[in-house]
């Protein structure tokens, strides 16, 4: 798998003129899940700054009960407050982790900025311990820069 090759496909998916934004994001989630074998759940959460909550957007993977997450709660909620990437090699070692499924072993969350404001994040769960590298972080930052163009 070559992240550089995947970047071109990300741009293509997000530039589909005849599709609504949510469908583009869902297609992007599916593409990432299909092409990176340790990306087992891929989705977006979007911030409601007034209520200080995150709301589940398009995703692929197992269904989740976590459709609304308060800022500060879990990995996603912490990223909403910190505005920084959060890589969790082993979710069982995290005190403030919201368990989604016993199959989830690790997680990466990268904030999504539009005009300097954190409007949400991409959240990826893996069934593998410690698969995420700095290359994943840079790639997902690129993905979010491209997604930001939709807003």
Could you explain how this protein is built, in words?
With 151 residues, the chain is an alpha+beta fold. 34% of the residues lie in helices and 27% in strands. It is built from four helices and six strands; from the N terminus they run ααβββαβββα. A six-stranded antiparallel beta sheet has the order 3-2-1-6-5-4, with helices on both faces. α1 (3-14) packs antiparallel against α2 (21-35) and α1 (3-14) packs parallel to α4. It starts with a helix and ends with a helix.
How many distinct helices?
4
Mean pLDDT: 94
Main sheet strand line-up: 3-2-1-6-5-4
- SS elements, strand count: 6
Radius of gyration: 14 Å
How far do the termini sit from each other? Answer: 29 Å
Strand content: 25-35%
Taking pLDDT < 50 over at least 5 consecutive residues as the criterion, the unreliable ranges are none
Q: N-to-C SSE series?
A: HHEEEHEEEH
**What is the makeup of the main sheet?**
6 strands, antiparallel
Q: What is the global morphology? A: globular
Helix content: 25-40%
Q: Assign the structural class, choosing from mainly alpha, mainly beta, alpha/beta, alpha+beta, or little secondary structure.
A: alpha+beta
Protein name: GAF domain-containing protein
Pfam families: GAF_2
Family: Belongs to the free Met sulfoxide reductase family.
Organism: Flavobacterium macrobrachii
